Amino acid sequence: MFYKIIISGFALLFLTDCNAQKDTNNPEKVVKRDLKNKKIEGKVIYFTEGENKFLPEYQMNVTFKNIAEDSRCPEGVTCVWQGAAVANIEFMGTTTRSMTIPLATTENAGRNYHKSALFNGYKISLVEVNPAPASGEGAKALAGKYRIGIIITKDGSNSSTRK
């Protein structure tokens, strides 16, 4: 009888711990908080997967090609690593050739993940990738349904390549 009480206590403790971790492991919530607190400066430009826009204020054409990788922790699941989503975005200036740049939701130089890149004198930062994968579906079910948010700011250098 006593062992049932101990096991029930551990189960309750485990479930309480899962709910506390769920809120802190969701990268979208952190990004939204940063956007609301104005920690990230600049106008967020949203793209749906496959969408192409000409941005006259930056004199560039931007196309959100696809999500190359989405290893983010699914909603409702406790993960050891928060994972990353990598978006392939094609940029073409009015005087430059097109360049596809992968941008990630997390910075990890060892895996070649970068949140920001330089193109044609502008710093381009990935700030949002939605929706998050669900535990039952996986990232494959989200193909074609992704929406990203980027911020473009003047960098001062005239480099047309990524740093």
What can you see in these coordinates?
This protein is α+β, with helices and mostly antiparallel strands and 163 residues long. It is elongated. The strands form two sheets. The chain has a four-stranded antiparallel sheet with strand order 1-8-7-6, covered by helices on one side. It is 20% helix and 34% strand. The chain starts with a helix and ends in a 9-residue tail after the last strand. A hairpin with a 5-residue loop joins strand 4 and strand 5.
Fold blueprint:
Blueprint (H helix, E strand, L loop, with lengths): L1 H23 L2 H10 L7 E5 L3 E4 L4 E11 L14 E9 L5 E6 L11 E4 L2 E9 L16 E8 L9
Antiparallel strand pairs: 1-8, 2-3, 3-4, 4-5, 6-7, 7-8
Number of extended strands = 8
Average pLDDT number: 77
Distance between the termini: 63 Å
Structural class by secondary-structure content = alpha+beta
The strand line-up of the biggest sheet is 1-8-7-6
Morphology:
elongated
